[in-house]
Design goal:
Elements: E1 10-15, H1 19-24, H2 26-35, E2 40-45, H3 50-53
Parallel strand pairs: 1-2
């Protein structure tokens, strides 16, 4: 990953697995947010998993 000094503003995390895979990947969201606090985090997930992340305050979309 590029450093924050490099101007990275948005990060896209891709998880197109099953619902359980999305649940197990949620610690990654927190870790990326902690490492890059000024970045906007986006998740690409299946339509079925969208509801799982809709309430996560760390995910912009």
């Amino acid at each position: 990953m590029a450093s924050q000094r490099g101007g990275m503003k948005r990060i896209l995390l891709v998880q197109t697995g099953f619902l359980g895979d999305v649940v197990l990947s949620t610690p990654v969201i927190a870790a990326v947010h902690q490492r890059h606090p000024g970045c906007e985090l986006w998740m690409l997930v299946t339509p079925q998993a969208k509801g799982l992340l809709g309430a996560d305050p760390l995910v912009a979309g």
